[in-house]
């Protein structure tokens, strides 16, 4: 029986798009804020330094994930997830290869998650053929984790359009030759609000002519909730893969984090009731 070849993902249109090669100031801010470590943005002050943990009956999973530096939960996981977000913003999808290391007795001793950026992938039978600029790599489908922007509720070109709009703001700064007039500032404020309000992002501004202080705080909360939603979706797929591997190699466990959505809602309610002010709100958070 003939095996069907299916082209499942392609980054070619993004790779050839100059809007990602020359990011303007606000575009870079947006990119950096979304890719910033989850444990920085989402770890409330009351939680202390520990943000991620492995929920398992024994230590086998953490031993598989921890490498020689023993920094999977404290550092490497955040870097991995940030790479995933970066690929999603830039290319509309993120690919990760699950690398398994075995000892001489064919016993699983290490697990790695390695992001890779291919031009496009072909799904043929049990394998994915990943085409790079200068090479082709064959990977077992069971060893690939894939995220698409539609997993998060966005179209593939959603952030591409945002990047292009943000890049159009920088000429306003250049036109004013570093002597910003009130009119230019208002134009920038309005543009940032129009582009980023659905995502809770306002260009790192502490004030905006068009927004009240409570609404500025509300936007910040929506930004953090949005990041937490992304984190949940990312970890859900990683955990699904870990459960599958655990059934095969004899381990249990999932990656968990300390959720913040309820804490944010409680803090905002205190703010609305006048129990705390903006400064106290941020002090309780960070």
UniProtKB/TrEMBL annotation:
This is Uncharacterized protein. It comes from Faecalibacillus faecis.
């Amino acid at each position: 029986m003939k095996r069907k070849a299916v082209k499942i993902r392609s980054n070619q249109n993004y790779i050839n798009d100059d809007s990602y090669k020359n990011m303007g100031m606000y575009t870079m801010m947006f990119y950096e804020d979304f890719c910033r470590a989850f444990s920085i943005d989402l770890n409330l002050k009351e939680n202390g330094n520990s943000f991620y943990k492995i929920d398992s009956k024994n230590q086998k999973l953490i031993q598989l994930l921890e490498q020689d530096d023993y920094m999977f939960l404290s550092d490497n996981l955040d870097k991995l997830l940030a790479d995933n977000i970066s690929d999603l913003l830039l290319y509309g999808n993120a690919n990760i290869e699950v690398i398994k290391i075995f000892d001489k007795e064919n016993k699983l001793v290490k697990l790695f998650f390695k992001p890779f950026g291919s031009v496009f992938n072909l799904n043929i039978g049990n394998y994915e053929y990943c085409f790079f600029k200068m090479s082709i790599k064959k990977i077992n489908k069971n060893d690939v984790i894939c995220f698409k922007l539609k997993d998060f509720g966005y179209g593939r070109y959603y952030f591409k359009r945002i990047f292009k709009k943000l890049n159009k703001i920088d000429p306003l700064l250049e036109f004013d030759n570093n002597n910003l007039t009130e009119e230019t500032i208002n134009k920038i404020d309005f543009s940032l609000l129009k582009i980023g309000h659905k995502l809770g992002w306002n260009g790192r501004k502490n004030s905006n002519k068009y927004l009240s202080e409570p609404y500025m705080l509300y936007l910040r909360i929506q930004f953090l909730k949005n990041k937490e939603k992304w984190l949940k979706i990312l970890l859900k797929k990683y955990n699904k893969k870990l459960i599958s591997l655990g059934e095969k190699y004899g381990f249990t466990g999932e990656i968990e984090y300390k959720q913040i959505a309820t804490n944010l809602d409680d803090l905002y309610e205190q703010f609305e009731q006048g129990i705390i002010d903006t400064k106290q709100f941020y002090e309780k958070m960070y």
